[in-house]
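Researcher: We're reviewing a set of sequences before deciding which ones to prioritize for further study. For each one, I'd like a predicted 3D structure that I can look through quickly. This is Helix-turn-helix domain protein. If possible, include the structure in token form so it fits the rest of the review sheet.
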Amino acid sequence: MDDRTINLLGDYLRARRELVRPADVGLPETARRRVPGLRREEVATLAGISVDYYLGLEQGRDRRPSAEILWALAQALRLDESATTHLFALANSVPRSRRHAHRHRVSPTLARLIDSWPATPAFVQTHTFLVLAANPLAQALSPAHTPGTNLVRTVFLEPDSFLVEPDPRQDFVACLRGLAGAEADDPDLAELVGEMSMRSESFRRLWARHDVGGRTHGRVTIAHPRVGTLTLDLERFPVPSAPGQQLVVYSAEADSRSHEALRLLAESAD
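Model: Here's the predicted structure for Helix-turn-helix domain protein, in token form for your review sheet.
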């Protein structure tokens, strides 16, 4: 584990403890608290480790926390499954290649597959939400699905061009961090996070929370200028043949108004 990864682990622990209220773990709230969330010594006590050892983890002095300690920290910090997986990835990662060319190449088979779905909006994105390929209906549904467009940039910098409810920003940032895993120095991710941190205060605030995961499925509402409001179900699927890529698919309930709206869009997209 290199120094950069150690720092990422410390940043993550610090951010997550600041999000836990004392009352969440059975501690009394006091007016004299000078820091948000839990103090370091409180986390150490809850996890059953010494304060000095925990401080070493946040500062990067201790390099090899055991699985038992990681599980104890996850419980102390009230981490869910995705956040716990991310904690383990940061603590136990091994050096990996920093850039994979296949992340930006969609297999001809996958491209042919989504193009064969004239009634189902579908697109392929990278781990940094760069759209690589999209079928005609996905592009008719929103210009944000045009290949070459980055969805994170769109939702934070051009929100009026992608009117989606519920607000996708927090979900996108959590998913972005989860997809990035421990490779926080990946060039594509570093470029995007650096740009967005400079240009968007809301992105900067959400990224600092260290939320991990994001939704892999759910129901969304999209406002379309020609066919009105559509209520669609969204599913994100990892692409096993191209780690870092995801297939995103929208669908509508049969015989619903949204299903009819998709049919009208499909006709115009032909």
